[in-house]
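Regression test case RT-17, inverse folding.

Input:
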């Protein structure tokens, strides 16, 4: 404690690039980053703090929000989204990081 380095797990104030986010550990579980996200309440003053999430946590977060917003009416979309993202992660050649 004491010295405040540029802790990578502490997020930063610029969005990560597609390549950059993969060099940052997931803010939740520490696996390699996959997606960049930010939470309004996590801001410092008026500055947005960006963090990295791994694929599994990115999917878990999106599923959580989808169910929060839409109840159980979007399960087909959730299943398709999960299969797409996690399927890409598991295939060595298919991890191109394409956005939906
Ligand atoms: Zn994670």
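Golden output:
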């Amino acid at each position: 404690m004491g010295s405040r380095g540029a802790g990578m797990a502490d997020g930063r104030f610029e969005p990560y690039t597609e390549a950059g986010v993969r060099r940052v550990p997931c803010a939740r579980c520490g696996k390699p980053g996959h997606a960049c996200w930010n939470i309004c309440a996590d801001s410092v003053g008026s500055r947005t703090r960006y963090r990295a999430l791994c694929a599994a946590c990115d999917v878990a977060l999106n599923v959580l929000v989808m169910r929060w917003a839409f109840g159980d009416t979007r399960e087909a979309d959730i299943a398709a989204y999960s299969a797409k993202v996690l399927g890409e992660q598991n295939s060595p050649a298919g991890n191109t990081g394409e956005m939906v």
